[in-house]
Amino acid sequence: MKIKSFNTAFLSIYIDRCDFGRGVFAARNISKGEVILTFTGKVISLTEVLTKAEKEAANPLQIDINTYIDIEEPGVIVNHHCHPNAGIVNTKTLIALTDISKGEEIFYDYSTTMSENLWTMVCGCSASNCRKIIKDFHYLPDSLKEQYLELGIVQNFIVREHNLNREVSLS
Ligand SMILES: [Zn+2]
Predict the structure, then answer these.
(1) 122 C-alpha to center of ligand 1: Å?
(2) Which long-range contacts (CB under 8 A, 24 or more apart) does 136-140 make?
(3) Does domain 2-170 have CATH number 2.170.270.10?
(4) Domain locations in the chain?
């Protein structure tokens, strides 16, 4: 059952039920590198995230140290996967990492946006490299970190932290 379709990115996505509740799916074939959607919502601080989380489910997208986007639909519906077919570039643009077929669910790796030591999530995705517990970027295996950095799908503030840590460990 289709719940809602969106007119963003030339009707390339729709929301539907999936194993994780609701998910975002490709409404047509999407090519590798194509923009799927842009995350939108109010920019809020960590304090606001925590206040919100006490009252209701909060699903913010971290975009800097202490800065988040309180993301709206459809972006907030995109699920995590340990072998994702999409990733975030330029802070809030979701692009396809591979060719995605019509009807396929769209996922990104939540760890590419997390550096706060506050939040973990149990993962039951189908990937053979499923990490089971999803944590901040710096907990990823080094090879996966490098792969994501090379793809340019890690939030800028995390790339800065990563480079700083690497300099410290080399000196
Ligand atoms: Zn997983």
Answers:
(1) 8
(2) 136/111, 137/111, 137/112, 137/113, 137/162, 138/162, 138/165, 139/111, 140/111
(3) yes
(4) 2-170
**CA 168 to chain CA centroid, nearest Å:** 28
Q: Ligand 1: distance of its center to the CA of 43 in Å?
A: 28
Q: How far is the CA of 151 from the centre of ligand 1 (A)?
A: 19
Interval between CA 5 and ligand 1 midpoint (Å): 26
What distance in angstroms lies between residue 99's CA and the mean position of ligand 1's atoms?
A: 20
Residue with tokens 């077919």: 85
Distances (CA, A) of 72 to 39, 41, 116, 145: 7, 5, 21, 27
Which two three-digit tokens encode residue 71? 């993301």
Tell me, in angstroms, the distance from the centre of ligand 1 to residue 114's CA. Answer: 15
pLDDT tens track for 90-115: 999 999 999 999 999 999 999 999 99
Angle between helices 156-170 and 142-151 (to 10 degrees): 130
Q: Which residues pair with 70 in a beta bridge?
A: 42
Token pair recorded at residue 41: 């919502």
For the segment 46-55, what is each residue's pLDDT rounded down to a tens digit? 999 999 888 8
| Ligand 1 centroid, distance to 168 Cα (angstroms) | 31
